[in-house]
Amino acid sequence: MKVAIICFDFKESNLRKQPWRYVYEIAKGLKSNGHEVFIVTNSNNETDIAGIRVFGVGKLFIPLKGESKEVLEVLDRENPDRIIMLLGLTSFLRTHFEIKQPVIGVLTSPVYSLGELIRNVGIRDSIAYRRYTVIHIINSLVPSFLVRKWSQKFEYIIVLSQRNRERLIKKGVPADKVIVIPPGIDEEFLELPERETIERIRSEISPDGAPVVMYYTSPLTLRGTDTLVRALPHILKEKEVKLLILSRPDYRSVLKEEQKLRKLAEKLNVRKNLVIISKHLPLEDVKAYVSSADVVVLPFKLVLSDVPLSILEAMALGKVVIGTDVDGIPEILKDKGLIVRPNNPKELANAVLLVLEDKKLKYELETAAKEYVNQWRRWNDVVEEFLKLIG
């Protein structure tokens, strides 16, 4: 069977990040099971990424119309049997649907209400970070009747969390059409680093032996990194800690975010307790840093793509994760981590102190997290579910 996948911004540098990791694993898995797979994305050239053919077109989608002429031309020329299309709610802001083949939609973007966005992010940050927030604001305003109407054109719509499924159904998508297929976990994260490596990193970060509170991946404040820094003075009133932010500098603008966090720490007089490591690290090094932490805090205000892999990775390494009541995060962390309200430094500080001071609770949550992820689906399980759908 020949399968086309339509996905925005598909490029090699994005393959370890969501939602592209999800798309890549599906494409790779379908190909390894004997299907011919190609990807259509918004770039200017035809290429090959990790052994998968990629056709670049100028635009994928014309707002208020539908798929671009270039996309339709590629589909007509290549004539796939099935199409998998990455969706956002703006995909339903259309007047035409000209694709002839059966289509499975994959909605990786969380379904937020406008009230949630304003409450979690705030108006000022929504404007300041409009590069990230504007699409979610538009999504929140898409009329339900359009979602209901155009969802009929899809065989199925895949979502990554139960919360997203419920919200799509509430917008009028038939329940039997919406299927939850969460992302997989890498086997590598189930293997703990060497104890000597972990101890060496701990001694570098916290020479005096203070507990290490850790955040990792992009330092974007939409992910709640500023909330975590604001929580630090509250934590330090009760307990000496080191806050480690392992930053992934994907873009030049990330360096500005790091500087913003340093200035905030200076303003709050906690700069000596903040350690920011800013560099791209191999997987083994990331695992070692995460393993060196006493607690991992991922206090998202906004999840840009459903079900953050960083939460599953930290749990796989046996870490207590403190997350926020955003998108599908509570589904993962219920009884296996702690949940706080987003953008609430005092509540976040109390959760950190609870984990650090209650050794019994910490052990129970670490054990539950590790056991839970040991049973979590692998990427080949995700592929198997797609294979069943495409027949």
TrEMBL record:
Residues 21-188 form the Glycosyltransferase subfamily 4-like N-terminal domain. One of its GO terms (molecular function) is transferase activity. InterPro entries: Glyco_trans_4-like_N. This is Membrane-bound galactosyl-transferase. It comes from Thermococcus onnurineus (strain NA1).
